Amino acid sequence: MELKHIVEEFTRIALTRPDVGFSLTSNGRDIFRLRKAKSLKFRVLDLMGVSVTGDLVDINAETSLVRVSGFLASPDTAHKTVANQFFFVNGRYFRSAYLHKAVMKAYEEYLPEGYTPSYFIWLEVAPESVDVNIHPTKAEVKFEEDSVIFQTIYACVRATLGRNAFGEGIDFNTEGRVEMPQMGSSFEEYRGPVTSAPAPPVDPAYDPFAPNLDFDAGAFEPSAPGKEPGSVPQGEPSPGIAWPKAPVGENAGYGRLFEEQQALQARAMVVKGRFIIAPSTSGVLLVHIRRAWERILYEKTLKALSKNAPVTQTALFPVQVEVGVASRILFDEHAEMLASVGFDITPFGTDTVVVNGVPEGYSCEPGKVQQMVQDILLILSDETSGVPEVVRAALAAKFATLGSVNAEAPKDAADAQRLIDTLFACENSELTASGKKITAVLSVEDLDKRF
Predict the structure, then answer these.
(1) CB 34 within 8 A of CB 43
(2) How far apart are CA 249 and CA 431, in angstroms?
(3) Residue 391's pLDDT is what?
(4) How far apart are CA 13 and CA 32, in angstroms?
(5) Rounded Cα–Cα distance for residues 388 and 307 (Å)
(6) What is the pLDDT of residue 116?
(7) In terms of CATH architecture, what is 49-163?
(8) Cα angle vertex 190, ends 188, 195, to 5°?
């Protein structure tokens, strides 16, 4: 974690002086080697990478109290991580949860819940209007007119987002599309003769409920002694349906195949990909699928972190994800721990990782893998410390939550039954690591009350 803090401080200093070259080396390896930048935007891109900052847009505003400048990243590049958010005042880096809310309030219509954008905002104010001595590390400041600064930043960010059309727009590109003719008032004159669709033959005397007098009962089943030809005993299928007879001899197992499938379907049923319903001895069992996965993955991860061999699912096509230099360092520092739970992630360059495999149960779909990398960064950024057993349990809970979101729902009754069997093989099948209920049973009495 020490290297991570060094990189953070290096980044803050380098952003204040794009006219100066900087370099950072660790254990003989170059982490940063920055030349003098042509502009502040080039310095931001050199430090953060294109995938982190995306399409940066300029932000500019000036009032009698404050001048605002800097860059905003496209909402498309927002992640769940909270890094790459910078405020500077008169060339000094500072943190401000209050002003961060102003930015987030302006972005709220453009981002899904839980995501945060990258931004780099410089403020210039009169030196006497800001107090930089309210925090021991001088990482926080106090403005005389906090509310005015808040409103200025909010208005400036919102106007910039609107001006750059980051919202949904109308696609006017018609290349390759079928051109639809427009019908004018003279269409009837030129359309020519109209050909009607042929009408299907109709027998007005046909009665679908009349008995089928042409039916030969003897052809369906041979007459038994004491049974009139064509009669149907009560409880037997109607002779109007050609019911298949049970196979005999070498094909006798053919019918049992369908009986087993029908029995399996009767044991478990998936509802909307969120719940499993299955009969139980006392009524109906309900299983919350995501929480079931969370419990299963929690116990698997806990065993893996306790030095048991993990199971890694190799991706058919490795997924390359650009994460930025600082985040790449986190993957380097925690490579052994990630491998212990089944992740096969290797470095590529100075700011990219390649995901070659994921723990069993995780999805290898590229979009989900990229989101998974961002979630892993959240876990690695949390500086958990304490007793090793407590640390392992905390990490296992976080990875289990991550895995349950990426896990796929059962596709059929067989998958659902396997998930139920795996869940009940866990040490605790009733609650997740965070204490949420996984299963519920509706008794026959509960069902009776609903009718």
Answers:
(1) yes
(2) 50
(3) 62
(4) 13
(5) 13
(6) 84
(7) 2-Layer Sandwich (3.30)
(8) 75
Please name the fold of domain 288-441: Ribosomal Protein S8; Chain: A, domain 1 (3.30.1370)
- Predicted local distance difference test score (pLDDT) of residue 207: 66
The Cα 300–Cα 256 span in angstroms is: 36
**Tokens read off for 352:** 């990219």
* Helices and strands (H, E) in the chain, number of each type: 15, 16
Q: CA 371 from chain center: how many Å? A: 6
**Consecutive H or E run containing 254:** helix 253-267
3-class DSSP assignment, residue 87: strand
- How far is it, in rounded angstroms, from Cα 424 to Cα 417? 11
Query: Which residues are CB-contacts of 66 (< 8 A; sequence separation ≥ 6)?
Result: 123, 124, 125, 148, 149, 152
Whose CA is closest to 289, among 258, 314, 268?
A: 268
- What is the four-CA torsion angle of 208, 213, 214, 215, rounded to 10 degrees? 90
Q: Are 67 and 124 in contact (CB under 8 A)?
A: yes
Burial, 328: exposed, middle or buried (Cβ in 10 Å; 0-12, 13-18, 19+)? buried
Residue 345 to residues 342, 355, 371, 411: CA-CA distances in angstroms?
9, 5, 14, 28
- pLDDT number for residue 213: 52
Residue 205 phi, psi dihedral angles, 5° rounding: -90, 0
Dihedral angle computed from the Cα positions of residues 383, 386, 390 and 392, in that order, rounded to the nearest 10 degrees: 50
Residue stretches of the chain with pLDDT short of 70: 1, 50-54, 81-83, 165-198, 206-267, 307-310, 361, 382-391
Instruction: Give the start-to-end residue ranges of the domains of the chain.
Output: 49-163, 288-441
The whole-angstrom separation of Cα 205 and Cα 24 is 93
Check residue 237 and give its pLDDT: 45
In angstroms, rounded to a whole number, what is the distance separating the alpha carbons of residues 105 and 87? 16
Q: Which residue has the tokens 């847009």?
A: 57
- Alpha-carbon distance of 381 to 326, in angstroms, equals 11
Residue 285's DSSP bridge partners are 278, 441
